[in-house]
Write a structure and sequence with these properties.
Jelly Rolls; 10 strands; 2 domains; alpha+beta; Arc Repressor Mutant, subunit A; six-stranded mixed sheet; four-stranded antiparallel sheet; 11 helices; about 300 residues
Length: about 300
């Protein structure tokens, strides 16, 4: 079964919920990035995706990449990542999220020790974009799409075939990543990542309130200048700009999932002035809130 991507993000940025079932911990999703961005989040599972249509802007840790149709990406456990459309036309993503134990089994197994553990322990070093120009990455992209289709169709014995494809992907990663025995991490990147999770925790938990730059910085026990540097380095935006974008994303979801008045949605999203909300929304989305609701509700009904 394929699910629409509607990730519920906890205040600390960790994605809530379970992907798949206890017995078969994998879930496949389709993301319509014309409707919503995929906000910055993290999870214990591994994630891989292929861009089905359009162009995206992908943030992994402190790096941002521009990917086009046919490209893809792989994200390691515990790494902050988010996706948004970077084109005017249709933009769709096929993604899958799976728990390491689906491939590795128990912690003591040779599959976990030799193939899964080295990847998970290397953290951000196991996050990268996939291009069809490289043969081994093209093989990865084909496997991701094949897994996605098998989960969509759910034909007889598809679980075994999915696990086999995931195992082959782990072999490719082991062969081409050249993971070192010493899994040392960039201490600066790790520190910034921890600070960012604290600040995202604060923003996601209080975005509907009147919060300032100093409040965001204080949530991670750092100065305002260090807060600005951290956001610029990891996300290439200021904390205030991120807050505005997060509020607008929340408002977009509210407008398509409820019949509440736009003025009430603006207040619930943290905008105290409806005129400022409308102006900010149009700058970010190219249309007014009213136009956005009409256009996308009509499109959803047509589908």
């Amino acid at each position: 079964m394929i699910y629409p991507c509607d990730a519920e993000i906890a205040p600390d940025g960790k994605e809530r919920g379970k992907h798949g079932t206890t017995g078969f911990p994998i879930a496949c999703y389709y993301d319509d990035l014309n409707l919503f961005d995929v906000p910055l989040h993290w999870h214990e599972e591994l994630e891989a995706a292929v861009i089905e249509m359009g162009e995206i802007s992908l943030t992994i840790g402190n790096e941002t990449y521009q990917l086009k149709e046919g490209d893809g990406f792989f994200v390691n456990s515990g790494i902050l990542h988010g996706v948004k459309s970077s084109c005017d036309g249709e933009c769709r993503l096929h993604s899958m999220v799976f728990h390491p134990r689906l491939v590795g089994g128990s912690d003591e197994s040779v599959f976990y020790q030799e193939y899964v553990n080295p990847l998970v322990k290397c953290g951000g070093n196991g996050c990268f974009v996939l291009s069809s120009a490289l043969p081994w990455q093209n093989e990865m992209l084909s496997s991701i799409e094949s897994i996605w289709q098998k989960c969509r169709e759910e034909k007889m014995h598809y679980e075994i075939k999915v696990r086999n494809l995931l195992s082959e992907m782990m072999v490719l990663l082991k062969e081409h990543l050249s993971l070192p025995d010493d899994y040392s991490r960039d201490s600066r990147s790790e520190r910034d990542g921890l600070r960012m999770k604290k600040m995202l925790d604060f923003i996601h938990n209080t975005f509907d309130q009147n919060i300032r730059l100093e409040d965001i910085a204080k949530s991670a026990d750092i100065s305002e200048s260090e807060c600005l540097r951290c956001f610029r380095r990891l996300l290439s935006v200021s904390p205030v700009q991120y807050l505005k974008e997060y509020r607008v994303e929340y408002a977009k979801r509210m407008m398509l999932s409820s019949s509440a008045f736009i003025s009430d949605i603006a207040l619930q999203s943290g905008f105290q002035d409806i005129s400022y909300f409308t102006k900010t929304f149009k700058i970010l989305e190219g249309v007014t809130p009213k136009e956005y609701r009409r256009i996308h509700r009509d499109n959803i009904m047509e589908k």
